[in-house]
Write a structure and sequence with these properties.
Elements (H helix, E strand, L loop, with lengths): L3 H36 L3 H30 L1
Helix pairs in contact: 1-2
Length: 73
């Protein structure tokens, strides 16, 4: 039914979704609060979160596009 390559991509897709929702919360407290307090600028942590989220969303979009190509194409 599915090729093993497709199954690998689906697993990567699920992992990226997990990181999209779980890791920004962890990073928010670690990088945002601790680095922000240490440097005296909270917005540094905020920009870390934005960059991280944009990268993960781009990765999820890329992998999901390949999965749909494998299944329907």
């Amino acid at each position: 039914m599915f090729k093993t390559e497709t199954m690998k991509r689906i697993l990567v897709f699920i992992a990226m979704l997990f990181f999209l929702f779980a890791c920004p919360l962890i990073l928010y407290y670690n990088i945002g609060v601790l680095t922000g307090m240490a440097i005296g600028c909270f917005f540094i942590g905020y920009y870390f979160i934005l960059a991280y989220s944009a990268f993960i969303i781009w990765g999820v979009w890329l992998v999901s596009k390949e999965i749909t190509n494998d299944i329907f194409g």
